[in-house]
Amino acid sequence: GESVGLHLPTLSVQEGDNSIINCAYSNSASDYFIWYKQESGKGPQFIIDIRSNMDKRQGQRVTVLLNKTVKHLSLQIAATQPGDSAVYFCAEPPAGGTSYGKLTFGQGTILTVHP
Amino acid sequence: KAGVTQTPRYLIKTRGQQVTLSCSPISGHRSVSWYQQTPGQGLQFLFEYFSETQRNKGNFPGRFSGRQFSNSRSEMNVSTLELGDSALYLCASSLAQGELTGYTFGSGTRLTVV
To answer: How far is CA A67 from CA A30, A31, A99, A104, B11, in A?
Structure first.
């Protein structure tokens, strides 16, 4: 039969703009989230993480916001650069911390930055 | 320091054959996890090894197996290959079981089944 691929959300921005990538989760007990960046031909690379006792965490040019009420997190990239072009994934381990090596990944968002 | 090394980078196999993929973790890392990445299913967890023991397993058929050696290097094996097994297989290593700080992925092995 015909194979159906995931239809990844796409975000196209101009260099220098701010980018916002969204992710929804379903388990209200989820307590830890990670954002990864995957460039073509490479494995996922850690960007930033956040625990459920926080609403916001900032890194270098990146900010993650967590809204536990609506089970949503977002990754904000400031002053987006062409090198930020990649697929971005949110990921979480099972709630409770007993199987942290078993990550569940979101479907991913393709970010394209135009010079 | 060297990252996670996966070999080979690319592999073409025929349906029905078996394949073994290798993952060398970052020096000092003792936990290795494997993931399958396909356009249809995205990134899916296969299994996690720590101290030569499988600690977690994803929802994959028994044709998918793995092992870990005393030096923490890990191999995964897929027997009786199917076309649907074509994927990028990624491994990630970390210092200890369930330790996500420093959880680092390799670049993967691209398996094509024809």
So the answer is: 12, 12, 23, 19, 42
Q: In chain B, which residue's Cα lies nearest the Cα of A99? A: B98
**Nearest of B59, B5, B38 to residue B110 by alpha carbon:** B38
Q: In chain A, positions 56-115, which contact chain B (CB-CB < 8 Å)?
A: 89, 91, 93, 97-108
Peptide bond before residue B8 is cis, with ω within 30 degrees of 0: yes
Task: Give the distance from residue A56's alpha carbon to the nearest chain B alpha carbon, in angstroms.
Answer: 18
Q: How far apart are CA A34 and CA A100, in angstroms?
A: 11
Exposure class string for B63-87: b at 16+ Cβ within 10 A, else e: ebbbebeeebbbbbebeebeeebbb
If you average pLDDT over residues B78-98, what whole number do you get? Answer: 93
pLDDT for the residue A95? 78
